[in-house]
Amino acid sequence: MNEHLKNGAAIFAGSAIMGFGINYFNTANGLAEGGITGVSLLLKYMFGWETGITNFLLNLPLFFIGWKVLGRRSFAYTVFATLMFSLFVYVFRNIHFVMNDLLLASLYAGVTVGVGLGIVFRFGGTSGGTDILAQVLKKYLGWPIGRSVFIFDSFTIILSLIYLDRERAMYTIVAVFVGSRLIDYVLEGTGKGKAAIIVSQHAEEISNRIHTELERGTTFFYGKGGYSDTDKKIIYCVVSRSEVGRLKKLVYATDRQAFVTLNDVFEVFGEGFNIMQEKA
Known about the structure:
Blueprint (H helix, E strand, L loop, with lengths): L1 H26 L7 H13 L3 H19 L1 H21 L10 H21 L7 H12 L3 H16 L5 H23 L4 E7 L3 H12 L4 E6 L6 E9 L4 H11 L4 E7 L7 H7 L1
Antiparallel strand pairs: 1-3, 1-4, 2-3
Helix pairs in contact: 1-4, 1-5, 2-3, 2-7, 3-4, 3-6, 5-8, 6-7, 7-8, 9-10
């Protein structure tokens, strides 16, 4: 029960951030948005229809897809998120911030919508609309949600050219792109690190130095050189981004012939994770 309350509170907060951003930046500056929200904004600009009400009504058919694909729990969170988002769009409908610089307006619009939607996704919900389709593509094709949202949103922006001028449509693309990046950032979390794979004839020594100097754990994999046909110990370890430079110097000082690859990792957790966050 506590988990449901926690998730519900997070989805509530994310929906509020989105609803505020849509009115404060998008509507105030004549910017569109992607997905069903973008269609709702377009209908507001053209006919004066309330965005929050229109958004909810347009989402109703997509709930049937959500019921089959998302599962009971995610579907409940999605309905809740859609209701809250539509409600907050309506509640904040008279709160506007008209800006002379459309670039700044689009950046702030992208940040608020991206952060809000990222929170909703992170805690198991969607804001409905094309977000449901993005979840479908992630589940069956493995596409990143941010990329899928950006693709769907681009179609909506093209549609918005029916009413908006090209300048505002292009600034809307900026907002949608920033929002899609923020979605993935929120989903991936702030606990980023670097995974290192080190192939060296001095693997034991390098591993010991990583333990003592970086205070990081290591794991050995055992392989065979394709060219030399000799057995090798391969070191795997994860360090914070700020420790990458020290790791390189450590390896280079021990074995100048070592072969090292570094890859980004996200959501690092386990022993030493809290320490990593503090050091990063």
